[in-house]
Amino acid sequence: MMGALGGSSLRVAVGVTGGIAAYKAVSVIRSLVLLGHHVDVIATGAALRFVGAPTFEAISGNPVRTDLYENVDTVQHVALGQSADVIAVVPATANTLAKLATGMADDLLTNTVLASLAPVVVAPAMHTEMWQNPATQANARRLDERGVTFVGPESGRLTGSDEGPGRLAEPEEIVNAIVSAARRGQRERLAAERGRDLVGHTVLVTAGGTREPIDPVRFLGNRSSGRQGVAIARKAAERGAEVTLVAANIEVPTPEDVRVVLVSSAEQMAAACAELAPRQDAIVMAAAVADYRPEHVQAGKIKKEATGDDLTLTFKKNPDILKNMVAARVPGQTIIGFAAETEEDDEARLELGRAKIRRKGCDFLVLNRVGWHHGFARDETAIQILDLDGHVVSEAVGDKMSVADSILDLVHEHE
Ligand code: CTP
Q1: What domains, with CATH codes, occur in the chain?
Q2: Ligand 1 centroid to 323 CA: how many Å?
Q3: Which residue, 22, 40, 101, 305, has fewest beta-carbon neighbours within 10 Å?
Q4: What pLDDT, on the 0 to 100 scale, is given for residue 353?
């Protein structure tokens, strides 16, 4: 399964209606195509009086659809509406807004919108008087209340010498709105499909970064904030699992419907996990665990008068908790490890991941890139998930909550 939330190609239906701003729809379509998306243009008859079908066909690389009564055997409006990740109307005339608001369907575009569950984005363009007319304003309000996304109109110079609100938004802004509405729609659809698919599962999640004490006031730590692990725990609980979170020094609030066990050092985390593991259907080891700890923890604060210019600490290896979990695995348990690597080259990073999953022996390894400016204390992340054979079984890009869902999909599938 490839993660559906990644930067995957979208199917965008762009409806073009009859206004002078129809020529600007061409740049919107071109940008979408350059971003790698599939675009089907649905032009009204009036739109084709402003821009010819060959232009739309050349730019989109697909035939322009305009006539409800063409290809009736393929039920075009239903097919286009159902396959689209998003429907955008650029430009949207006052007439089209009125039809969409009342649910009228007298051409291919309005039929497609009615027959679709995809998010709808409209970019109105018309004369100021038409936009400000109470009828148009009421229609826009109705559509907004129904969840239709509006981009613009902007204020500025209109076709004639007049100025005011009614100008089509900038193509770049329209493209951004289309892509984010489509991604939001995909996330909502996936969430609805996932529902409470983890009911009856027990899931243990580790989060945060361990701290290894040096003396009563100092420790060795790392930059992990715990965001990703906490997001996984929260999502697992939302999807119905009974979740225990072993949290080491996390910087984010813990979810209410999750049992939290607070630890600080790797040894404490190892002890907590060893006790909890036998009762878990899945173990997700998102914590950054220190590989070494100072061999001797000083009873009192280390004073520089006593140590002089150089201070040498000796370290002892910490238990490898993940390896221990794999060694003590109960039948049917899914174990997921994490690897945060600074390697910049994608292929070399994958190789490090492959070597790591072989060393650890877990079912899946979540690989992400970290560095001075990557990964920590941020909400955006990008991951690849490897299986024990070293294959990339899933990829996800997005906030840590949506990435958490992609990770939990594997828990659901691997039973
Ligand atoms: N891990 C663990 N116990 C440790 C170290 C790591 O359980 N003592 C777990 C982490 O929670 C993570 C996975 O092992 O899920 C990989 O952690 P990482 O630090 O990348 O692995 P190491 O084996 O320590 O490899 P490296 O030499 O790259 O640090």
Answers
A1: 11-192 (3.40.50.1950), 196-413 (3.40.50.10300)
A2: 9
A3: 305
A4: 97
